[in-house]
Amino acid sequence: MKKQTILLFVLICNICWAQQSKEIDIVLEKWHKAAAQADFDSYFGTMTTDAIFIGTDPTENWAYDDFKAFAKPYFDKGKAWSFSTLERNIFYKKGNTFAWFDELLDTQMGICRGSGVLEITSEGWKIKHYVLSIAIPNENVKEITALKKDFDTSLMNKIKAQKN
């Protein structure tokens, strides 16, 4: 009887965890779809109001309101960006109000990697932090670092000067 109770508990937990993963997956797909359809309200409604979006450019570390202001003109033109999911991994700890994920995306920039954190709110899961990176194959790193060397050097010098 004890083994059956434990087995039933594990089964119920697995079903609950699978349901949470599905809910998170739906939120992320809705978010990407809202961008592709230039649905500004839905896109930003999927994020917490204290969310952070880190873009592919090293200067893109956007607080929620700043990111909204940056993105609004793109959405107003009727075309923001279009990311479709190639693969996604979702992680969370039982009883936690946060989940984290990574995803591989098909984008207008080629393959990108997204990762982030979601928080459960009274309205359901919302994106709290997102990082977008352009995925560069290892065999192309030398070529890419040479291409961006001047930009990187200039930005690093500027950041270091601000620290002093």
TrEMBL record:
<feature type="domain" description="SnoaL-like">
    <location>
        <begin position="27"/>
        <end position="137"/>
    </location>
</feature>
<protein>
    <submittedName>
        <fullName>Nuclear transport factor 2 family protein</fullName>
    </submittedName>
</protein>
<dbReference type="Pfam" id="PF13474">
    <property type="entry name" value="SnoaL_3"/>
</dbReference>
<dbReference type="InterPro" id="IPR037401">
    <property type="entry name" value="SnoaL-like"/>
</dbReference>
<dbReference type="InterPro" id="IPR032710">
    <property type="entry name" value="NTF2-like_dom_sf"/>
</dbReference>
